[in-house]
Amino acid sequence: MLWDATIITVHDKQRPVQIYVKISIANNSTMSLLNQFLKKKIGFHLRFSSFIHIFLIIFCEIQDRILDVKYTDIDYVIFTDGARFTLDGGSPFDRETYRYTPLLAWIMTPNIIAFPQFGKILFSALDILTGWMLYRMLPSSVDRKLFSLIWLYNPLTLIISTRGSSESIICSLVILALYLFSKKQYLIAGLVYGFVIHFKIYPVIYAPSLYLVISNKKHWRNLLPTKSKLVFFISTAVGFLIPTLLSFYLYGQIYIDEAWLYHFYKLKSVLSSNSFSVCFCPTICVDTRQRFLLLVR
């Protein structure tokens, strides 16, 4: 038994009865097995996590066939459709609601050429790679295997990658950039970092921190540019501009409109379709023009 609960009733003359629940986590034998499992080498956990990913991909196929509620992420269907349009000589943006870098459609073409589960296997492999890079990147002064296991066995990362979400590409590239950055390989780290910003703009928020970390001096001079900073950020610009300009060259203004401007101009639709937080209810319920007029007034 992993846990047991004991209900303790406390009577107090001045206050109502208070009930506390005392939970005992696992017994000795269970904890012993858990400790033995955790003490195994990182290679074992990488293989075991890979097995879990494969199991979930198979489970995904079964659920998609027998249940109305699909396990596969709807974005995965969009990626695959974009790849199909690309192979047919068209544009991935011919697929309605495709609003990603066209590189993702190119990466997903084996879904059409080979087998439709290719993308999920790729995302899962990158998920495992991220766990391994965390183990290699963290210093020996911390329990780096523990942090790696938290990633490898995290239910969220397991489900997200096996459903077919491309977030594992972003995560693995960010960790790779940080790993190279920690080794002071600023040129390659910048190229990777710029490429991941092209893939999804969100990682740009790390730029100020990376700028300050390069010098690592607690002085106002830390704000001044150095050779290392220039190398990193110039290579970041190159890593971002090359795939971005290539995408614009191949697909024109529709790439800018769908992959970039859409996320600024269509804020209301993005929030209403992707956020269930009550904080966004006023944003969803009030028309965009009305919000603007309220701000002006």
Please bin the fraction of helical residues.
55-70%
| Secondary-structure content class | mainly alpha
- Order of strands, widest sheet: 1-2
User: How many distinct helices?
Assistant: 16
Main location: endoplasmic reticulum
Keywords: Endoplasmic reticulum, Glycosyltransferase, GPI-anchor biosynthesis, Membrane, Transferase, Transmembrane, Transmembrane helix
Pfam families: Mannosyl_trans
EC number: 2.4.1.-
Provide structural commentary.
By secondary structure, the protein is mainly α. It has helices at residues 28-38, 42-66, 74-87, 102-107, 110-113, 118-137, 144-152, 155-163, 167-182, 186-199, 207-215, 227-251, 253-265, 267-274, 281-285, 288-296; strands spanning 3-10, 18-25. A two-stranded antiparallel ribbon has the order 1-2. The longest helix is centred in the N-terminal third of the chain and has 25 residues, at 42-66. It is flat.
